[in-house]
Amino acid sequence: MTNIHSTAAEMASALAAKEISSVELTKQHLDRIAAVDGKINAFLHIDKAGALEQAEVIDKKRASGEKLSPLAGVPIAVKDILAQKGIPTTAGSKILEGWRPPYDSTVVAKLKAASVVILGKTNMDEFAMGSSTENSAYGTTQNPWDLARTPGGSSGGSAAAVAAFEAPLAIGTDTGGSIRQPAALTGIVGVKPTYGAVSRYGVVAYSSSLDQVGPFARTVLDTALLHEAIAGHDERDSTSINAPVPQVVAAAKRLDVKGMKIGVIKELSGSGFQAGISARIAESIELLVAAGAEIVEVTCPNFEYALAAYYLIAPSEASSNLARFDSMRYGLRVGDDGSRGAEEVMSATREAGFGKEVKRRIILGTYALSSGYYDAYYGSAQKVRTLVKQDFDNAFAKADVLISPVTPTTAFKIGEKSNDPVAMYLSDIATIPVNMAGIGGMSLPVGLADEDGLPVGLQIMAPVMQDDRFYRVGGTLEAALLSKWGQPILSKAPDLTVQK
Q1: Which of 220, 249, 218, 233 is CA-nearest to residue 69?
Q2: Which domain holds residue 172?
Q3: E strands of 299-427, at which residues?
Q4: Does residue 366 fall inside a structural domain?
Q5: I need a surface site. Which of 38, 129, 323, 450 has the fewest CB within 10 A?
């Protein structure tokens, strides 16, 4: 019987066979959200009426015999950084509180064209700046595995919604690991596609040269189905790649890695990673070898500088992008009582509207771009970025895909790192190089850590526009793990209906 615990592919099949209606399936997920989201805070806005209206239209189209997309009628959650016409879009910030875009982002438009039912908008670190979803102006999101821990970030709301069975699919954005890291910490699949493979038009910008929209789901195939639905060239995005979308769905179904060379990155293994994480990665490597893959060690010596370079490039671009929030055009406006000038109103608005982490990064970025410091900081960081890309090029000359842990630790406790920005930034040490080079990467759940019973994620990376490679490896490994475990990893998660 199809229900909230079914995969998106199973839901799509049941809908196509008219075993269940989209309205019924949407109501099941809305009921689940009503039952558990008070504990999780995954959603910032639930569009109950709109979702049911979408579902009813889809059911009528299906009844009339209209040809529909593979995911037609399946519910989805969307990170609150993507513009959706008439629906509140805050980017997790008070400065955009109440803003309702007059247009759809390209990804939202593609979802609507694919007849996917949008349930609502999910919580996130303000302007995608964070690794825990503790920086949201609208409260912290809790991890469904342990409500005292974070789900990661910045797309923590989307990840938590999928892990808690509030939605089978979700959209996130990834600037330095913000899809892959929360996917790893919540035991689901998350993909950061090749930079430019999915349009950024209508996405509130954080760091334009690093941001990328991508899919969350509970299986590799489900993630691939959503990936194909949202990818493709967009003339409204100047960074969009005008090339065919990789056949990721076919790759996810292939379940064969014989003859593939899989590179283990020396600099992202061993010391510095939780023992339980290293153990699950080692077991995954054994399964890939048993499936016919060849393992090779590769070295990427410039990765050690990637974190520092990232935290110069991203804040620098953020300081430029966030300058548009000036109280003059849209969003929050504070202190406009007739007694203050434009600069005073602008200052008061930004003081009230931006959170602590956003202010920190704006200051850092503005300093790095200032006269006399540009070459020393921002310019040097861009040189490191080139070296990181060269490391990947050299590694891919020896291997078809690369693998590493996604995170140094499993999900950390809420508040544990919130007062130590550097410790928080280190959460992304294994994911940032992918964004710096513009390649694609997947986070795949590969078991639970022995120390705490929390999910562990394996990162699989592939060259530019070769995203089908990590779907092929991910699908094969997922099948091997499922055969080994006998049940999906999320079946081991606590029951939220009884958690306090």
Answers
A1: 249
A2: 8-303+385-492
A3: 401-405
A4: no
A5: 38
The token pair that represents 111 in the structure block: 């979802």
Q: At what angle do helices 22-40 and 48-63 cross, to 10 degrees?
A: 160
Residue 333 is assigned to a structural domain of this protein: no
Among residues 178, 327, 427, 443, which one is catalytic? 178
What are the pLDDT digits (tens) for 258-312? 999 999 999 998 888 999 999 999 999 999 999 999 999 999 999 999 999 999 9
pLDDT per position as a tens digit, 67-110: 999 999 999 999 999 999 999 999 999 999 989 999 999 999 99
Are the CB atoms for 213 and 231 separated by under 8 Å? no
479-to-38, 108, 190, 252, 487 alpha-carbon distances in Å: 34, 31, 17, 10, 11
- Compute the Cα dihedral for 446, 449, 453, 456 and give only its sign: negative
Residues 6+ apart with CB under 8 A from 212: 173, 174, 175, 192, 193, 194, 195, 196, 197, 198, 200, 435
Task: Tell me the sheet residues that pair with 78.
Answer: 121, 171
Tell me if 355 is assigned to some domain. Answer: no
**CB half-sphere exposure, 233, CA atoms < 13 A:** 5
| Catalytic annotation, pick one of 22, 79, 327, 404 | 79
Q: Tokens for 155?
A: 């797309």
Q: Measured between alpha carbons, how far is 451 from 405 in angstroms, rounded to an integer?
A: 16
CA distance 428 to 173: 14
The answer to the question of residue 433 being in a domain is yes
Q: Are strands 43-46 and 117-122 parallel, antiparallel or unpaired?
A: antiparallel
For residue 170, the cross-strand partners are 77, 216
Active site residue 154: yes
Report whether 206 contacts 177 (CB < 8 A).
Answer: no
Catalytic-role residue among 93, 154, 316, 404: 154
CATH number at residue 393: 3.90.1300.10
Please give the tally of structural domains in the chain: 1
